[in-house]
UniProtKB/TrEMBL annotation, chain A:
Its cofactor is thiamine diphosphate. Pfam families: Transket_pyr, Transketolase_C. GO terms for molecular function: oxidoreductase activity. This is Pyruvate dehydrogenase E1 component beta subunit. Keywords: Oxidoreductase, Pyruvate, Thiamine pyrophosphate. PANTHER family: PYRUVATE DEHYDROGENASE E1 COMPONENT BETA SUBUNIT (PTHR43257), PYRUVATE DEHYDROGENASE E1 COMPONENT SUBUNIT BETA (PTHR43257:SF2). Signal peptide: none annotated. It comes from Sedimentibacter saalensis. It comes from the Bacteria.
């Protein structure tokens, strides 16, 4: 075992896949000479050369579109958007091209690309650099969507994402990059679509992903003091969705809180709430509770931003409300 | 042509391709009028010389991305008109098994990376394909085919800029038919030719008569060789005219009648036929090709109409290449 940060874990996963398969390339802004803002590709240019480690101009639409074209030719691009918010200038290549290409061509084509994008609030980066936009991608058939929360998961999942023949959107929370964890020394892969119970409990299930996993765990500690036993289910990937894990946990606790950092309206929490209500209604002791960001633009001032997205106290409150405590 | 630079076989081959496209497209207009075709149909009638000249300049291993008006280009690259027709009729036997239709025909084995329903979206895809060739160290050239209107999308600029900066083996081929649906290019663009913009990317840019398949062929051949030798991309602009509306059912009243009539005299197929006769080719040989193409397209229609529509159960297949069932279910 070794203790490394999430950014290092992603870097290691990428590095191993680039060594294993010469068709894997990385491209994006500041990926080559600088080695990425979070050092994820540091040293890659020297090791793999400029054909496989590419500094792009600030042309998100262009280089995402080029990733689609390269992927259709058997290259496996791992392309980075510096902030997921920038998908606003480059939605067509991922939404209309990558996601739809296989279906539109009757299964002829695969687009084995990974779109890595840091996301998340809490860095006081204001309206255009703080969003969690996983719902944009889950809404688009053809895309797989992964949101790791730990170093171990991030490494195993990035490797699975690179080996997957479908376009995978890999969303990394910026405030988790420095978080360290022990991970195995030997090679491992974590398959997409496999949730992980980060804490076992019997009274209530918190379904969440990305940074909110830690907030849910903090809330669980707090609630334990009051005798409430919380299960925290980290989905890890939203598409494919590990329904079996959700079902098993719901059938055990009969109470569900869904927590995510993206805004509440049309968020993935609404989708989960609907599916659980439609299919597991008889198992529920109370309606599914949602904890999510307010339906506003990510604000700048610390007081405003902290009021914008969920914190452990919000989760504690929601669980108590759900359990009438 | 007067100097007999090209063999009779080659000239007849060009003619055959142009006639194949014309008959294919004309047949579509008939079936559209009969109400037997679904969706939108954008024909390339009038633009056959661009498609033919471009694709005759390519090797089988070279690649293209085409546009929403892509039937001609795709046929010229070697697509089977039967399988294509079946796709346009939404049949299971079509290139995309009825899932794509007119705007999404692709056959990667023939180097056809797809038509595209989003104007300008094929340009970076082609540049990405060229990047793939560079990474792999292989010799294919990818041709991005797009219209004059697509040149005003950001993707045009972004993709050509990167292709130029990295000397990618690509050719940017503009089919300038003067109109983006109803809007004349000169009312929204302040350069005379789209290829004038090549200067901004420090790459070659040429303008050719897009109704002359030999002129197109020669220009594309030169650009393809230039790219294949590692010199980077160029822009080849082919001046042409779509002889019908943007889509079937569009009377194209936004175009000046006098100009339309003027272009009608430049019909690429009529003119090329006249030139073949002037070259001393027997009319009987030309008629033989025309009859063969008529039969091929009639057979294609027959094949399409006899083919089954996809089973409704196939609506959920091929969204994903792995874990499809689970990803579609939730």
């Amino acid at each position: 075992m070794k203790k490394i940060s999430i950014s290092k874990a992603i870097s290691e996963g990428l590095h191993e896949e680039m060594l294993r398969d010469e068709n894997v390339i990385v491209l994006g802004e500041d990926m080559a000479k600088m080695g990425n803002v979070f050092a994820i590709t540091q040293g890659f240019l020297e090791e793999f050369g400029p054909n496989r480690v590419i500094d792009t101009p600030i042309s998100e639409s262009g280089f995402l579109g080029m990733s689609v074209g390269a992927a259709m030719r058997g290259i496996r691009p791992v392309v980075e958007l510096m902030y997921v918010d920038f998908i606003g200038v480059s939605y067509d290549p991922i939404m209309n091209q990558a996601a739809k290409m296989r279906y539109m061509t009757g299964g002829q084509v695969t687009v084995p690309m990974v779109l890595r994008a840091p996301m998340g609030s809490g860095r006081r980066n204001a309206g255009q650099h703080s969003s969690c936009l996983e719902t944009l991608f889950t809404h688009m058939p053809g895309l797989k969507v992964v949101c790791p929360s730990t170093a171990k998961d991030a490494k195993g999942l990035i490797k699975a994402a690179i080996r997957d023949d479908d376009p995978v959107v890999f969303l990394e929370h910026r405030l988790l990059y420095a978080k360290k964890e022990e991970i195995p020394d030997e090679e491992y892969i974590i398959p997409l679509g496999k949730a992980d119970i980060k804490r076992e409990g019997k009274d209530v299930t918190i379904i969440t992903w990305s940074r909110q996993v830690y907030f849910a765990l903090e809330a669980a500690e707090e609630l334990e003091k009051e005798g409430i036993d919380v299960e925290v289910l980290d989905l890890r990937s939203l598409v494919p969705l590990d329904w079996d894990a959700i079902k098993e946990s719901v059938c055990k606790t009969h109470n569900v809180v869904v927590v995510h950092e993206g805004v509440k309206r049309s968020g993935f929490g609404g989708e989960l709430s609907a599916q659980i209500t439609e299919e597991l209604f008889d198992e529920l002791d109370a309606p599914v509770e949602r904890v999510a960001a307010l339906n506003v633009v990510p604000p700048f001032a610390p007081t405003l931003e902290d009021a914008f997205f969920p914190h452990p106290a919000d989760i504690v409150k929601a669980v108590k409300k759900l359990l009438n405590k | 042509m007067k100097n007999k630079k090209y063999s009779k076989e080659m000239l007849l081959d060009f003619y055959e391709t142009m006639v194949r496209i014309r008959k294919f497209e004309t047949k579509l207009t008939e079936y559209f009028t009969k109400g037997m075709l679904y969706g939108n149909i954008h024909t390339s009638i009038g633009q056959e010389a661009v498609a033919t000249g471009t694709n005759k300049a390519l090797e089988k291993t070279d690649l293209i991305t085409a546009t929403h008006r892509g039937h001609g280009q795709i046929i010229a690259k070697g697509a089977d008109t039967k399988i294509m027709m079946a796709e346009l009729f939404g049949r299971k036997t079509g290139y995309c098994q009825g899932k794509g239709g007119s705007m999404h025909v692709a056959d990667v084995s023939l180097g056809i990376l797809g038509a595209n329903g989003i104007v300008g979206a094929g340009i970076p895809i082609a540049a990405g394909s060229a990047l793939a060739s560079k990474i792999k160290g292989t010799k294919e050239v990818t041709v991005a085919i797009f219209g004059d209107a697509a040149s005003n999308q950001g993707t045009f600029h972004e993709a050509i800029n990167m292709a130029s900066a990295w000397k990618l083996p690509a050719v940017f081929l503009c089919e300038n038919n003067n109109y983006g649906v109803s809007v004349n290019i000169h009312t929204v663009t302040n350069v005379e030719y789209i290829s004038d913009r090549a200067k901004g990317y420090n790459i070659p840019g040429v303008v050719v008569d897009g109704n002359d398949p030999i002129a197109v062929y020669e220009a594309v051949k030169q650009a393809v060789e230039y790219a294949r030798e590692g010199n980077g991309p160029s822009i080849v602009e082919c001046m042409t005219w779509r002889m019908r509306g943007h889509y079937e059912g569009d009377p194209a009243a936004y175009r000046d009648r006098a100009i339309t009539d003027e272009w009608a005299k430049k019909d690429p197929i009529d003119n090329f036929r006249t030139r073949l006769l002037a070259e001393g080719i027997e009319e009987a040989e030309i008629v033989k090709i025309e009859e063969a193409m008529e039969k091929e397209i009639n057979d294609a229609i027959e094949f399409a109409l006899e083919s089954p529509l996809p089973d409704p159960s196939e609506v959920t297949t091929d969204v994903y290449s792995s874990d499809n069932e689970r990803c579609v279910a939730r």
